[in-house]
Specification:
Layout lengths: L1 E2 L5 E2 L2 H10 L1 H9 L10 H15 L6 E4 L1 H4 L20 E6 L1 H17 L10 H11 L4 E2 L9 H12 L9 E6 L2 H21 L15
Parallel strand pairs: 4-6
Antiparallel strand pairs: 1-2, 3-4, 5-6
Amino acid sequence: MNFDEQGRLVCSPPELYALAVANPHRLLIGYLMGGTPHVFARHEDYCVFLDAVSDGTGVHPKNLYVRGSCQIGYSIAPRAHKVWCAVGPSSDLDLVIVDPGYFRRCEDELRRWEARNPVRSPQAKGAAAAENRAQDRLFNCFRDKGLPRVVCVHHRKMMEKVAQLAHCGHVRDVSAFIYPDWHSAQERYEFDLRKLREGVESGSFIAPPDVPLPPSR
């Protein structure tokens, strides 16, 4: 595993998986939570993207990074239909924001909305989204994907504005994972890596191929 001249991680799925098994902490800290994302042609383009997000959120650029297929060039999401698939033209930029104040503002607004709109049964409208939010909260994570339209409108408009700037060459939707601290962000990533290993070991996921699979299969 190495970085190219623009700071992008260069590694095959088998190389990444081997380190995920042997030393997931090193994989996260040394490779996955930093560097230039695969979809940015130049490190400078990525810096301009981070500055645009920072201007819109007030969060320091050092507290921002990209994860997911746009980061390494293929997905390691622990889902059978996505794992090892190459990044595609419609893949979202999964942005991580680590800031206690920003997390609190978003989470407080969501909780006020939930208090006014309780989900009263597993079959009710919005029950699946509420369950997803409950799972996110186990990791102190606030995700903007799937939010009610009236919640965190400023944040969502800002993400749309940044996406339209097309820093990575063309417009990609930007989805945010927001955490109050770095420990929570790392813990969530460690959970995903553990689920990836368990899926491959059990046969639920295919073994890492030598090269990424087509974007959709």
